Amino acid sequence: MEKVEGSYYLLNDELVKNADGESYPEFEGRTVYEVIRVEDGIAIFLEDHLDRFFRSAAYLDLPLPATAESIEDRVYRLIADNQVGNQNLKFILGITSKSESVLWIFFTQSIYPPKSYYEEGIATSLFRIERLDPNIKLVRSDYQKAVLQERADKGVYELLLVDGNEEITEGSRTNVFFVKGKELYTPPAKAVLLGIVRKKVFEICGKRQIPINEMAIPVEWVKDAEGAFVSGTGNNVLPISKIGAVAIPTMNNPIVQTIMADYAEMVSVYKKAKKH
């Protein structure tokens, strides 16, 4: 069961009072989803999220009962009606038992990393599992359960997924980058979910003329990394201080620190532009 928070949610264009799951939609078959971070009442990089959401829907041939413009209007109506400042918003699109295409938009439980994680880095662990259709945000309860259990068992904030070739592909809810010398390395686009924050990291590196190499990342690389970080909607750019038993000197790496600062500035500029 989804954790729906706030006084109201949307079913297509209908505003519904949140009454403990009484009228939550029941989907049949595969569904796609998107999570957007709301900060200071602004849906961060909403246009990028909508573009990916529409591509995911097209991939599964799911009809979207709305245009991008109308969804944006609904998002800000829902933000206003729930009086939300900082929380994650979730879209789920699927076909109900009545054979109707439904877009469900709601606020969900949002737990963000504490400030200390950005100052000290996070602990991660390797997890051997592969995601189906890595470029599409499919709802998969089996994957989610396995990941949650492994994170709890290992006592880490994030898992770095390892495929059958002993290569790191992505984080369980993030994209991952490594630093060697003055260059970044990240798994190729075809092997991962193309995160919105990942896209912004590429934009930052383009402006800073920091080379990014998209290539397979062997597990054995971990011990030689000079820095590493994950990127994601709920985490922004989050430094890694440890992968399993291997300490990573990320907090002393100027490239990672520059990207973190530039991303924070990028979000600030976006919010200011949307408020005017």
UniProtKB/TrEMBL annotation:
Gene Ontology CC annotation, any one: cytosol
Gene Ontology biological process terms in this record: carboxylic acid biosynthetic process
One Pfam family per UniProt: Aminotran_4
Keyword Transferase tagged: yes
InterPro entries (alphabetical): Aminotrans_IV, Aminotrans_IV_CS, Aminotransferase-like, BCAT-like_C, BCAT-like_N, Class-IV_PLP-Dep_Aminotrnsfr
UniProt GO molecular function: transaminase activity
Annotated keywords: Aminotransferase, Pyridoxal phosphate, Transferase
SUPFAM superfamilies, A to Z: D-aminoacid aminotransferase-like PLP-dependent enzymes
Keyword DNA-binding attached: no
Similarity section: Belongs to the class-IV pyridoxal-phosphate-dependent aminotransferase family.
Protein name: Branched-chain amino acid aminotransferase
Biological classification of the source: Bacteria, Bacillati, Bacillota, Bacilli, Lactobacillales
